[in-house]
Prior knowledge:
alpha+beta; HIT family, subunit A; 5-stranded antiparallel β-sheet; globular
Amino acid sequence: MSTIFSKIISREIPAYIVYEDENxxxxxxxxxxxxxxxxxxxxxxxxxxxDLDDEWLSKMMVFAKKVAKGIEKVVECKRVGVAVVGLExxxxxxxxxxxxxxxxxxxxxxxxxxxxxxxIELVKKINAAIA
Length: 131
């Protein structure tokens, strides 16, 4: 199962990577709902998040928390919302979305457009906030 996320993990295709460790990768969504919208993925290929064993699922949530805390320091928001949809790419992932109200998590709203410069700025700032 080689997915677009697997290709990002292996660096076959570029991504705006904000943070990683030996097991997980966090990168900006290129079609964000809001500025700072980040995806967290395990480096091993698993389609459905609840097919992860308990240890990996726990570690993934702790990793996502660390990334979310970094996002909160950089993007003005009331919270970082968490969503697991899992239908659009067959590689489990968590959406971390800066929100100010519940409507900010509505995927049917469509994405916002960010410049290359803005993506790069967000990567640098979020990474620095995590480190």
